[in-house]
Amino acid sequence: MIEQQLWHPVIASHEVREAPVACALLGQSLVLWRESAHDGDRVHAWADQCPHRGAQLSLGRVLIGVHGARLECPYHGWQFGHAGQCHHIPAAPDFTPPATHAATVFEARERHGLVWVRLQAPRSTLGALDAVPAFAVAEDTAWRRVVCGPYALDTSAPRLVENFLDLSHFGFVHEGWLGERCHAQVDTGQVEEGDDGLAVVNARAWQPRAYAGADEGAWIRYRYDVPHPFSAVLRKDATAGDPVSNAIALFIRPDGDTACTAWFVMATQGDTSTDLELVDFQDTVFAQDRPVVESQRPRTLPIGRLAPVTEVHGPADRVSSAYRRYLKRLDISIGTC
Predict the structure, then answer these.
(1) What's the whole-model pTM score?
(2) Which of the residues 102, 106, 133, 143 could staple to 231 if both were Cys, CB 3.0 to 4.6 A apart?
């Protein structure tokens, strides 16, 4: 299953501090813990199960000593180093644990204010999918970055991505905020499809309030990039003279076929809104999306993988159709039908 070989966000970086944290990815229970080292912090992701007697390592604690950081099991105090190897067993202090006495270690990275985990190394080259999805402006110090979420939903990750890519719902779901019924027409732009994802350029929609600090409407030009089956990035540029630049990334953790957890990472230049105001704006917009997206049936996204696609399409659905073809090319099974 290719999903096991992809990077997925599991938690916001700021939530992993001194104590270990439990979470899950694709049915795998994880313990996340932070190691402070002279060359910077590192977050580790392991199976949340001690190899000794199966206790949850997330109930333990992080020890800092002369040998560096170690994760201590809450049951018998076994201590594991950053590579997962057991280095000390208190009940037998003179015993040297063999290589088999080790926790199960997964790859972990911190990007865009989130912790990303991959459960399996790729069996073959995945191209751009071999890396954490890119969001260049979020790593640029000239841009301000704000992480919004997590948002837990009763729908599939692909349904939420498709909603994010859809301009034609703005005038109805987000009326008065991101769209108006009397300006419902959209320009879907040009769609560029490839094995590494999608790019949508020159898409346009009318928005009465295109960002948190806006006080008048404008035609907004959009660029979308879909670098990952469960991630998408948009860049919004308003009319000439607008001092604000905005980019928003949607990063989703699939929690099953009909459940997911999402974060929005906002990057701005020139926006005078506070971080809290930006989060409140995103919370409001997402609260408008939630009931509609969770109402869709089936909750999985029809791509014709298991049966013929039963939904009909209109001219404004070109991006959605391209996204469904992308998922089908990758043989994505989680959240699709």
Answers:
(1) 0.94
(2) 133
Q: What is the location of CATH 2.102.10.10 in the chain?
A: 2-128
Residue type, 234: L
* 3 state DSSP class of 177: coil
CA distances from 324 to 146, 302, 308, 313 (A): 29, 8, 13, 12
Q: Which part of the chain is CATH 3.90.380.10?
A: 133-330
Q: What one-character DSSP code corresponds to residue 210?
A: -
CA atoms within 13 A on the CB side of 324: 21
- Compute the distance between CA of residue 54 and CA of residue 44 in angstroms, rounded to an integer: 19
Contact present, 210 and 187 (Cβ < 8 Å): no
Task: Give the CA radius of gyration of the chain.
Answer: 22
pLDDT at 210 over 80: no
Which 3 state secondary structure label does DSSP give 203?
A: strand
Whether 211 shows a pLDDT value over 70: the answer reads: no
- Would you state the structure tokens that stand for residue 82, as one six-digit string? 């950053």
Size (the chain), residues: 337
User: What is the β-pairing status of strands 190-194 and 197-207?
Assistant: antiparallel
Q: Name residues whose C-beta falls within 8 Å of residue 231's C-beta, 6 or more positions apart in sequence.
A: 133, 161, 249, 250, 251, 252
- Residues 301-321 have a mean pLDDT of 89
Q: How far apart are CA 253 and CA 58, in angstroms?
A: 20
Q: How far apart are CA 142 and CA 246, in angstroms?
A: 12
Fold of 2-128: Rieske Iron-sulfur Protein (2.102.10)
User: For residue 268, what are its two tokens?
Assistant: 């701005």
CA atoms within 13 A on the CB side of 101: 14
